[in-house]
Amino acid sequence: MRPLSALFVMSLRQALPVKRTIILVLIQLLPALVYLLSTQNRTDAAALESFVAIGASMLLGLAVPVVAIVLGAGALGAERRDETLSFIAMRPIPRFALAGTKTVAAIVAGTAIGLVGALALGVAHVTQYGNTSLITGIGLAVFITTALYVSVLVPLGFLTDRAVLIAMVYLFIFEGGVVSALPALATISPWRIGLSIFGAVASDPPPIIDDLLGSLTPSAVTPLLAVIVTFVVSVALTTLMLRQRDLA
Amino acid sequence: MTLDPAFVPDPTIEVVTVSKWFGQKVAVSGLSCSFGPGVTGLLGPNGAGKTTLLRMISGLTSVSNGKITVLGKNPRTDTGLFSSMALVPDEDAVYGDITGRQFVRYSAALSNVEERDKPEEVLSIVAMGDAADRSIGGYSKGMRQRIKVAAAIVTDPDVLILDEPLNGTDPIQRAHLIALFEGFGEEGRTVIVSSHVLEEVERVSKRVIAIVDGRLAAAGSVEAIRASMHDIPYVVRISTDAPRKLGAALFASSAAVSITSTNDGISVSTKDITTLGKDTPRIASDIGARITGFRPQDQSLESVFRYLVEGR
After folding, report:
1. Residue A92 and residue B112: Cβ atoms within 8 Å?
2. What's the predicted TM-score (pTM) here?
3. Residue from the list A3, A86, A87 with its beta carbon closest to the beta carbon of B112
């Protein structure tokens, strides 16, 4: 376990250097700020609707994915670019453990950053309307969203230097445009899968959540299953690439 | 029966007709050799395929054809092997934002080294104790080389692979590292040190494997390789104020094979550059010619090795 814990700690450190962490945290605070500015003197029902339509959708559909994409793509991609991959690959650590640990570290780092945004959004709502029931749901949604994007981005980041660009195009063009126009494609939109757990956990979510979810329905089980399956497939793919590809 | 000098009697590393190509480019071609306990120099000009070979031995790069075993195992598939093998790569495979001490401790932790004092011990061995708390990003090239060596030897490897480890080191650091590698060899570890400088390899090891264009150029003792190199015809350009006179007189030297003259000098083909170097000033003095230049042409290591490959 010592080699893996050392790898995990170093991976967290690589993922979150001070300057980058500050920038990523500031990005997470934006949804809460926009939500606060847009909900001055509103009724509770209107504020709840804004919480989902503005706060949650901005957090889960923009801030959290951006962080997860950057951290996921860099988990092994940065080691390859910085030529330190040989340093960790030439260790008595099975390839699947290497891939799994790097992925878990990126998920933990991304979730930690995302939870700052979730907490800020929750606090913004609580200070105005006194309702704390949304914080758990949005926190879980942050974890699901982060885990899905990171799991996809770790093998992609190892495969190509353009992983971030590809993922951003997917996020903004496909998820932001195409899925909005064709709700049936919501099942391949990671942030909407994350939002679905919020819909299941939050008490009495506003109807606007159905518009955002498209063909998805609020569920606690499906997102967790999606995370498990995506994580396993991601680690298997990354392990395969670590075994097959030249690590230099 | 005499063993081919490319092979050793009790190998820890066996390279059997190994080839590696990247697309159309052939980096290593049908190479066979073996390495055993002690220090072996891997010599060849830049781009010869040394790094590719070392990466294949380290399991980082796949072989396109052939087979490599290290301690009887396949380095590509058996990650357990890495508890007995370490690589010091040519490139800066270091984390710039951590200190040297953290880097070596990280290496020890990744390889599950249980001796707690080991990182401090190796930092002291490579004389990096004083700089160990500085960020690696601020290290000189020589210091980076030494911290990479420390990170490799902290795992106490039976097989130590060093790719151009003396690059960027000053003479004192170089002497220190060479003594260190020799010590590892004397302890019975298999140590491979690559370099493109013959004199460097000569100082580190008695046995040399020389490759060029991905093929075996020469193998054996440094003396044997030097002897092979003595047969190479060199062309020496001698600048003089009396080219015709000197050219005619130099035929008296047994070292000159052929001579061509131009307005400002002569080109002498020789297989014994040392004797030619001794004879030329003496003969010039005898005939009253003034020599303003004595420059061997095309004497790069690459051309020397290419000759060896073609003659093999």
Report:
1. yes
2. 0.84
3. A3
